[in-house]
Amino acid sequence: MTDLRKLMHGSAVLVPILIEVTSKPIVLTGLCIIMVVYSVEEVLRLKRHPMPVLTRFTLRMSRPSETEHFIVSPVYLGVGIILALLLFPTKITYASIIIVATGDPVAAYVGGRFGRRHIRQNKTLEGLLAGLVVSFLLASILVYPLAAFAGAAGAMLMELLAFPDDNLTMPIAAGALIFLMTLATQ
What we know:
- The chain has 186 residues and is mostly helical.
- The chain has one domain (3-184).
- Helix content is 75%, strand content 3%.
- It is built from 9 helices and 2 strands.
- The protein has a two-stranded antiparallel ribbon.
- A hairpin with a 2-residue loop joins strand 1 (118-120) and strand 2 (123-124).
- Helix 2 packs across helix 3 (24-46).
- The radius of gyration is 16 Å and the shape is globular.
- The relative contact order is 0.13.
């Protein structure tokens, strides 16, 4: 994961901040607009009619293996965040977004720099544990520690499996597990 790609992924932490500053409907609308514009850009790029600034930005963040087809990971991340916003109470949604925004890039960074024990493809034990710890600690600010741990662990399992795409499954798994743990502790 390139540094710019990690930064963009991590920028998802802005979603809760933007909701608090504006409103949930405004942010949901903005996310939908961004996804539509991105999708149009990708279709035009594939038809050899690129949108100069957006296409350059997209290609700069993509892996070489992704450029021959529609780069779907950003759409999965957007859909995952939108579903979390629609499905879960506010604090749980925020925690699940923080988990996906921090756990995935931290795992990629630590795994790429310090990873020695490969679990699956380019996934390492060191990256997985780093993503788990960081996302757990940050989610613990918003929800009970046990619920934060369950959400972080479930999300990092989705990151490891990457089916169909961890950007989609991480916020949903995290939110669902935090929600269930919250219900169980009440």
